[in-house]
Amino acid sequence: MNFQRGLQLLVVVGLVVSAAAGGAVAQSDSGDADLYESLEDMVPLYNENADSVNLGPVSIAGTNNIYIEDGDSVVTYSMVINDQNRITALNDSASEDAKRKITTDRATIEELTTASNPALTFRDAVANDDIVITGEDGQTVERVKWRSSTRSRAFLCDRGRY
Question: What's the pLDDT tens digit per position in 92-132?
């Protein structure tokens, strides 16, 4: 796998540190319909650009939960990524099958959904820690993998190689 896929695994969208630590998570409601619709609308453009961006060596293929901090609440969605880094499903609730959690804030998601190249915007947000990827609760291997990936990325960034 390449570095591009690793970054994608780190993003496309986890819990905010407080939510991951056990904070209350508010599920999506009708007020979040526009956010979900904008994510749905972004998927085709993201998929068109998935091959054009180096996302890294670690893949985020499979089911991922997305936790979006929005004020005092956290909006939760899930998505499925295939082995070609394309989004094949987007759901308006968390999935019990998710291996990873992708954590970010609403402003970052809004930037992603309005970008001309969402895959590149995703990669940059992961590199800047605006999107954080880790293993879901109970997914020890994913947690270790992402902790190692984050440390490697920080090492490469410090040396201008990322």
Answer: 999 999 999 999 999 999 999 999 999 999 989 988 999 99
Structure pTM? Answer: 0.74
pLDDT in tens, 133-162: 999 988 877 778 877 665 555 444 444 444
Question: Residue 74 in contact with residue 19, Cβ under 8 Å?
Answer: yes
**List of residues 6+ apart from 102 with CB closer than 8 A:** 10, 11, 12, 13, 14, 60, 64, 65, 66, 67, 131, 132, 133
Structural domains of the chain ordered from first start: 3-154 (3.30.1050)
